[in-house]
Amino acid sequence: MTSSKYDTVIIGAGAAGMMCAIHAAAKGGSVLLLDHAKAAGEKIRISGGGRCNFTNMHCTPEAFLSENPHFVKSALKRFTQWDFLDLVVKHGIAYHEKTLGQLFCDGSAKEIIAMLLAEMRKVRVEISLNTAVTSVDKTAEGFALVTSGAMNGPVACRSLVIATGGKSIPKMGATGFGYGIAEQFGLPLIETRAGLVPLTFSDKIKESLKDLPGVACPTAASTDAISFTEALLFTHRGLSGPAILQISSYWTPSQPVVLNLLPEQDLFALLREKRQENGRRDIATVIADFLPKRLAAFQVNRLALSGNIADHSDAALREIATALQAWQVHPIGTEGYRTAEVTLGGVDTDALSSKTMEVKAVEGLYFIGEVVDVTGWLGGYNFQWAWSSGWAAGTAIAAKG
């Protein structure tokens, strides 16, 4: 059977793959974009509650985790959040800023997918969905692929880009395909694990928290390495909400998470004021002034508080403040890839060029997006990495001619 020949084949029609295709084909090169899914950009479609948090105004290298924290700098500097925003504006997509620099579509995430598809049509990118890649081999001219499904046949190319993402949200079709290709070509991998994911508790702790699922409050969640101040949500399994998803990427098993339930407040001073205003108020009622009702009741019980606030000395009030602003909780795990927004770890960046995303030891082979050992914070950072790394690889391929 005769092979279909292309200058570039990209495996993975997600954010990084589509961005790469647009730029790889910009100077007339033939580009084929493959995906085993039935539609392009499925993770884009479900992101941000269906409105796609497509980038972040404050995107800097410091917002990314990697064994080599400097690796992201080149791509992020050369294709910035402002460059992607220019494309959004060019296509007339209305957007708004939410908290902490997060940019969302006013309408639907499908507008971002439609924008990328339109840009690919302009440069004649060929897309084959419902197509699985069953094998990849290196040849003298480049690479030979065997496909099944809609395309069903051999494919040859000079440049091959792996944009298959990580293991997160397997119900959307996520697999470890990209890691297998990396291993086939001798690339080292950084151990993978679920990131931006809810944390879980033991049955004993869950029982003690049984009245709290659904309660949310602003919280500073911390590990030894870092702290994030956003919303916390109690669930039937443990803890979720943006503050917890953020800290989960830094948390390691057996490590406590420290919760400040009243961030950026001097609770000790506030309790002293309450005592001075009306010392006859019940301490439980006073605590309920600061926390959601059910959470306040839980903390009063946990700390065995009773009596009027006037009955509590400065030392006692300080202990209460510390207990609520440095509450140590002990997760036993995470909800895993099923609910994780991203995959930590992946292809070791030492094996790649930070400028082009090309494998140093295998000419013409590129890895981009989530499959690489680069993980951003919650809030549009991972999409920006997809745009920037896809752009870096695509422009490098186009420059080769």
Q: Would you kindly provide a written description of the structure presented here, covering whatever features stand out?
A:
Strands 1, 2, 7, 8, 9, 10 and 20 form a 7-stranded mixed β-sheet that branches. With 401 residues, this protein is an alpha+beta fold. The chain is built from 13 helices and 21 strands. Strand 9 and strand 10 (153-162) form a beta hairpin. It is elongated and about 85 Å long. The two termini are 27 Å apart. The model has no long low-confidence stretch (mean pLDDT 97).
**Which spans of ≥5 residues are poorly predicted at pLDDT below 50?**
none
Terminal CA distance? 27 Å
For the largest beta-sheet, the strand count, sense and barrel status come to: 7 strands, mixed
Number of DSSP-assigned strands:
21
Cα radius of gyration in angstroms: 25 Å
How many helices? The count is 13
Helix content: 25-40%
Question: What is the approximate shape?
Answer: elongated
Strand content: 15-25%
> What structural class results from the helix and strand content?
alpha+beta
Mean pLDDT: 97
